């Protein structure tokens, strides 16, 4: 057969099947798999055949594809509180484009209300599209765009903000919202929620609608943020089944599972609340927690210095000193190590057969002595970095490694380090700030 045409090209193909030859007209699509051809049929469905089944291919002038009807513009209740829905990407606010078969942002308010009609009785939605990114492509510049969008939302009278986000790095962005608004002792003017979905909306098992309902409900009806643990929250399924979504502290949450609907859990502390969603509507069930005095409202968020660069390393059998030295020579602003156990690095050679360990120690020590910033967290995720238990940990402290005593989760710790570097970039700022509990990431009541 001839080469498959560009996506969107009208075509007619004749294929061989078990029942004989058959013909199909539609739009060419990217192949659904290796050695396949895929097209969008006139009825809106996609179909694929092995390349070897195609007997002929004809390019057409046009093909009339059944169009998806534009949703009716649904008037919103102007008496309801205003919530800004800020879209960055992910599957939670998306739909299938029946011309291309791709998933695209479902982002006009009328489309959202048509897809999730329960929102009509909760809030007046204003949609803001920052982008349509895979979450693993998000950088600190995008954190700043989210912070600026939340600030603009509150300036326009929104009582809350819901950020729809891909789940893979959602916990990093949630931490960024927490440090940006509350890292210097303040609190945001309203509620900030980050949510996403583990299953796409075209699947019967999708968690998108329920997560969105719970998030918007909290944005309107949740308690006013104190600035401690709640300056941003993550809301997704609490269990694999429907009916209960967890409200987690944005500064201390992590994605635990690649595909489960209840993929997110709090680190070194408990959930703040749960949003129960049933036929009678959503409701909030608060968890028992120590009450924190509300901080002074922040006028604007502290943005991240987009020029800061942090090199990350994982302690283990393949952590080599030349890699660390390369980051130092490249002028990175800080080194962030994911240590083993209590926060240890391979810096000793007890059997006299691993000289690279001693070289790693000397590399880090020389860097710290020259004013370099080295911070260690723990790969275990839960539990503290405790460098007083073993002699190796005490040596790490002596050569200048920061991190002892912290309960800050590894992902949140990376964002915290960037926040501290964005203040003035000094080692003293990082060293003193690392032990502080800036916004609930390092709670003293969880040190166990």
Which SSEs are present, and which pair or pack?
Elements: E1 10-17, E2 20-29, E3 36-41, E4 46-50, E5 54-59, E6 82-87, E7 94-96, E8 103-105, H1 109-115, E9 124-129, H2 140-155, E10 160-164, H3 170-182, E11 191-195, H4 208-221, E12 233-237, E13 244-249, E14 253-255, E15 264-266, E16 273-278, E17 281-286, E18 310-314, H5 321-329, E19 334-339, H6 355-369, E20 374-378, H7 391-398, H8 410-423, H9 427-435
Helix pairs in contact: 2-3, 3-8, 5-6, 8-9
Give the CATH H-level superfamily of the largest domain: L-asparaginase, N-terminal domain
Mean pLDDT: 90
Name of the CATH architecture of the largest domain: 3-Layer(aba) Sandwich
Q: What series of H and E elements makes up the topology?
A: EEEEEEEEHEHEHEHEEEEEEEHEHEHHH
- Principal-axis shape equals globular
Give the strand order, joined by hyphens, for the main sheet: 9-6-10-11-12-13-16-17
Distance between the termini: 67 Å
Within the CATH hierarchy, at the fold level, what is the topology of the largest domain? Rossmann fold
Stretches where pLDDT is under 50 for at least 5 consecutive residues are none
Q: Tell how many strands the DSSP assignment holds.
A: 20
DSSP strand (E) fraction? Answer: 15-25%
In the residues, how many domains can be counted? Answer: 3
Q: CATH class of the largest domain, please?
A: Alpha Beta
Radius of gyration: 26 Å
Helix vs. strand class: alpha/beta
